[in-house]
Fold this sequence. Notes:
Layout: E1 7-12, H1 27-45, E2 50-53, H2 59-73, E3 78-83, H3 94-106, E4 109-112, H4 121-131, E5 135-139, H5 146-156, E6 161-164
Parallel strand pairs: 1-2, 1-5, 2-3, 3-4, 5-6
Amino acid sequence: MRGKPSTCCFTGHRPEKLPWGSDETAPRCKALKQKLQDAVSAAYDEGMRHFICGMARGCDFYFAEAVLALRAEKQDVTLEAAVPCPTQADNWPPEDQSRWRTLLAACDVETIVQNHYTAGCMLRRNRYMVDHSAMVIAVYDGTNGGTRRTLEYALRQKIPFMDINPDEI
Length: 169
């Protein structure tokens, strides 16, 4: 097993791939957030103490918020932001930029994977997270994209994962 034995990372979909889009008041979104909270708690129960988030819109935000909620209860929990490049949020809607900055400020560690945007910086961020983890939590619906490639990489590295399918909520 690669990575650190007490570290868990996350991969998941952006709002555009979720059945409810950006509507976080939707019952299925609330149910997903609860499942993520339960998955983070289960990872903690399995010995995970350090959590890494890629800081993307959508499920990454939900994951970071779930970890921060757990950290409020458990003093030994830490959250790391794995930022692909400093301009990650520059083209997002203002409310998402604000949420990103708030979550970033709440993290215990900030890792800038590379200093400027390139076509491969998201892939590099995802591999960084897997390479530094002993477990992955995923919100994944089976479609092609970055989440799928991250899970395929985790499988090749023999890193176990917990999968939450948003279509089954």
